[in-house]
Specification:
The chain is mostly helical and 239 residues long. It has one domain. The radius of gyration is 18 Å and the shape is globular. About 4% of the residues have low confidence.
Length: 239
Amino acid sequence: MSKWNPTDRWRAFVVLSTICALIAFPADAFAHGVTAGDKGWIQEVSGVLLMPFAYLGAKHMVTGYDHLLFLLGVIFFLHRLRDVGLYVTLFAVGHSVTLIAGVLTEVKVNAYIIDAIIGFSVVYKALDNLGAFQRWFGFQPSTKAATLIFGLFHGFGLATKILDFEVSPDGLVQNLVAFNVGVEMGQLLALSAILIAMGYWRRTRSFGRHAYAANVWIMTAGFVLVGYQVTGYFLPDFI
């Protein structure tokens, strides 16, 4: 095994720090957070407001580190842009369907439950990357199906939060579409930054050594998200 030189060590530190900074960008809550100012604005406005809602959608994705952690797990071992595009599209389709349908049909579930499932999606993808399912059960679940299914939960989580804000029905469909477009734009922006950082890290010898530890870190972060939401469900006054 070749020695890990100081240059590789520094590169690994820079890449991991960049990814952590992207994912740990301050948010208002531990998943699907919406700031108090944004919440108040959503509750007060009415009519078609495409650009403001698109901005809110992009802001949600860039600061939604539950989304970013899951996407990081999804693209962690993907090297071809075609594969990245496929999985991100599956996630986007699932996210868009339940976001729009959930709000229009006014179907919602307790926010803590849905956000706990979203946290579990992060754990699931990290375990998938670690090859745990093959070792434990002797088969590999479909990663494409899992990405689509968890995308549905991610969108449903945000739909539940939007319903709690009682958005005005005036211009609702147009604003939802604009919001979703913003979400996808924010996703592309955040994912581009993560891909650049990952591409840089993959060219170093440290990637192979630390890929396992990185996925353990992703899994741990997912468990923290799950624990936070479960605590909120049973002890809402504690959160």
